[in-house]
Design a protein that fits this description.
Blueprint: E1 11-15, H1 19-30, E2 34-39, H2 48-53, E3 58-61, E4 74-77, H3 86-93, E5 98-99, H4 101-108, E6 112-117, H5 122-132, E7 139-144, H6 150-154, E8 161-166, H7 169-173, E9 182-185, H8 193-196, H9 199-207, E10 218-222, H10 226-231, E11 238-243, E12 252-255, E13 258-261, E14 264-268, H11 277-292, H12 297-306, E15 315-320, E16 323-327, H13 334-341, E17 348-353, E18 371-377, H14 381-391, E19 394-397, H15 401-411, E20 417-420, H16 433-448
Parallel strand pairs: 1-2, 1-4, 2-3, 4-5, 6-8, 6-9, 7-8, 9-10, 10-11, 11-12, 16-20, 17-18, 17-20, 18-19
Antiparallel strand pairs: 12-13, 13-14, 15-16
Helix pairs in contact: 5-11, 15-16
Domain Mur ligase C-terminal: 312-424
Catalytic activity: UDP-N-acetyl-alpha-D-muramoyl-L-alanine + D-glutamate + ATP = UDP-N-acetyl-alpha-D-muramoyl-L-alanyl-D-glutamate + ADP + phosphate + H(+)
EC number: 6.3.2.9
C-alpha cells in the first residue's frame, strides 16, 4: 500500500461500526490520524468497539452527538447510512468532506482497479471478470459488495495485482478522487429511490464511477441503455461500448449467435452455460473489461463454458424429478425478477414475496407468459396473490421461504422450472437476501437430497 502522509494528525470521524467502518478506522489510525468512531447502537451491542479501543481509537456509541464534528477534517460513513443522518447533514453544511471507504481504498492502493456498477448484474459481471483474469499477468483481487472491504484488499495489493471492485450507488456517492483504470457501467433502472430521493440523483451517483476518468482510463458501457449511453458522452475516458442489438467495431457485441470483441469472435453463444438474455449483457461487459486488462481468449472461453452463476443470482441448484431448480434470492426488485423470468421458456413455478415497500406488482404481468404457479409469501403476499389472479395462474400462499419452497416442490410437475425470484427485499423476515437464499437452498436439499 502507499504510505500516505496526508492524514497524519488529521481528525477523522468514522460513522458506522460495520465492516467498512472498522476497516477505515484501523487504516486511518495506521496512517497517523486521530480517529473517532461513532455508532447508533449501544456500546454493549458493538463487539468491534473493544477491538478498536485496544488500538487507541475512540468509540462513541448510542447516538450521534453533534459535538463529534468539532474540528473534524473528514467524515467517512458506512455506505448504508443515509445522507439525512444528522451528523452527515451537519458535516455537509459545514463543508466537511464526506467519504465512503472506497475513496480511502483507492488512495492507498498500489494496484489498478476495475470498477463495476449498475442497477442489476454487478455481482455476476464482477465474478466473471475475476475468474476470466485468473492466470493472467496480474492477479485479480475481488473487493467491494461482493467480497472483502475494499480498504482491506487495497492494503495488501501490489502493483502486480488488479483489484476488481463491485460498487453500489451508495458507495460511489462518497467518492472524490476515485479513478479506476477501467470503469464498467452495466445499466440503470429505477432503484433505491427511497435512499436517493429522485431518479436524477440516483443516476448522478452511478455516474461518479466515471467523473474523474481521463483519456488514460476506459469506460465500458451499455450502448443499449439510453441513460447510460447519454451519460457516457460526458467523460474524457476512452469509450468501449457493448451491445446485444448492434455490431460495434470498437466494443463487445452479439451477432448471429456469437460473442465478439472488436470484430474478433470470442465464443459461440450456444457454448455458454449461464442462462438469460440479461446475462448476455453481463458477459459482453466482462469480455470487454478482461480483453482491455490483458486477459486471454482461452481463459474467457473456459469461464463462459463452465460458469453456472453466482450464489443467489439465478444460481442453478440442480435437477430433481425432471424439474430444474434456481435460486435468485438476489432479485430484490421487480426489474431483477423480470430479467429472471425472461431467462426461461419452460413453464415456471415462481416463488416470490418479501418486504412491502408500497409498490404494486402489475409491472410483472407481461413477464408471466411462462409462469404457471405463483407461490406468494411475506409482507407482499396479498399483493402478489392479486397479481396471480390477474395473470390467471395457480396461486399458493405460504408463510415464509421455507414453507413456500416445500409447497412449490409439492405443487410442481415434471418439466417445470422452480424459481425463487422474490421481487422484494428480504428484511421483513430475513436479515439479508443471502440468508433468505440459504433458507431456500437448505429446504431444497432436505426435500430433494440435491447436493
Amino acid at each position: 500500500m502507499k504510505q500516505l502522509t496526508e492524514f497524519h494528525q488529521k481528525k477523522i470521524l468514522i460513522l458506522g461500526l460495520a465492516k467498512s467502518g472498522v476497516a477505515a478506522a484501523t487504516m486511518m489510525h495506521r496512517l497517523g490520524a486521530s480517529v473517532t468512531v461513532n455508532d447508533s447502537k449501544e456500546r454493549s451491542e458493538n463487539d468491534e468497539a473493544s477491538q478498536l479501543e485496544a488500538l487507541g481509537i475512540r468509540v462513541v456509541a448510542g447516538g450521534h452527538p453533534l459535538y463529534l464534528l468539532e474540528e473534524i477534517d473528514l467524515l467517512i460513513k458506512n455506505p448504508g447510512i443515509p445522507y439525512q443522518n444528522v451528523l452527515v447533514k451537519e458535516a455537509t453544511s459545514r463543508g466537511i468532506p464526506v467519504w465512503t471507504e472506497v475513496e480511502l481504498a483507492y488512495r492507498i492502493s498500489e494496484a489498478e482497479m476495475i470498477a463495476i456498477t449498475g442497477s442489476n448484474g454487478k455481482t455476476t459481471t464482477t465474478t466473471l471478470i475475476v475468474e476470466m483474469l485468473e492466470n493472467s499477468k496480474r492477479k485479480p483481487l475481488v473487493a467491494g459488495n461482493i467480497g472483502t472491504v475494499a480498504t482491506d484488499v487495497a492494503k495488501v495489493a501490489t502493483a502486480n495485482d488488479v483489484i476488481v471492485v463491485e460498487l453500489s450507488s451508495f458507495q460511489l456517492m462518497g467518492t472524490e478522487a476515485f479513478r479506476p483504470k477501467i470503469a464498467v457501467w452495466l445499466n440503470i433502472f429505477d432503484a433505491h429511490l427511497d435512499y436517493h430521493g429522485t431518479r436524477d440523483d440516483y443516476v448522478a451517483a452511478k455516474a461518479k464511477i466515471m467523473q474523474n476518468l481521463s483519456k488514460d482510463e476506459t469506460l465500458v458501457y451499455n450502448a443499449d441503455d439510453v441513460t447510460v449511453a447519454e451519460a457516457a458522452k460526458h467523460t474524457d475516458a476512452k469509450l468501449v461500448p457493448f451491445s446485444t442489438k448492434e455490431k460495434l467495431t470498437n466494443g463487445a457485441y452479439l451477432d448471429q449467435g456469437k460473442i465478439y470483441f472488436q470484430e474478433e469472435v470470442i465464443i459461440e453463444l450456444n457454448e455458454v452455460v449461464l442462462p438469460g438474455a440479461h446475462n448476455v449483457e453481463n458477459m459482453l461487459a466482462a469480455v470487454a473489461a478482461v480483453k482491455l486488462a490483458g486477459g486471454t481468449n482461452k481463459q474467457i472461453q473456459h469461464v463462459l463454458k463452465t460458469f453456472k452463476g453466482v450464489k443467489h443470482r439465478l444460481q442453478f441448484v440442480g435437477e430433481w424429478q425432471n424439474r430444474l431448480i434456481y435460486n435468485d434470492s438476489k432479485a430484490t426488485n421487480i426489474l431483477a425478477t423480470k430479467a429472471a423470468l425472461s431467462a426461461f421458456t419452460k413453464p415456471i413455478v415462481l416463488i416470490a414475496g418479501g418486504l412491502d415497500r408500497g409498490n404494486e406488482f402489475d409491472e410483472l404481468l407481461p413477464d408471466f407468459s411462462h409462469v404457471e404457479v405463483l407461490v406468494a409469501f411475506g409482507q407482499t403476499r396479498e399483493k402478489l396473490v392479486s397479481l396471480g389472479e390477474k395473470a390467471g395462474v395457480t396461486i399458493i400462499e405460504a408463510d415464509n421461504v421455507e414453507d413456500a419452497t416445500k409447497k412449490a416442490l409439492a405443487g410442481s410437475t415434471e418439466g417445470q422450472v422452480i424459481l425463487l425470484s422474490p421481487a422484494c427485499a428480504s428484511w421483513d423476515q430475513y436479515r439479508s437476501f443471502e440468508v433468505r437464499g440459504d433458507a431456500f437452498l437448505e429446504t431444497v436439499q432436505r426435500a430433494t437430497k440435491i447436493k
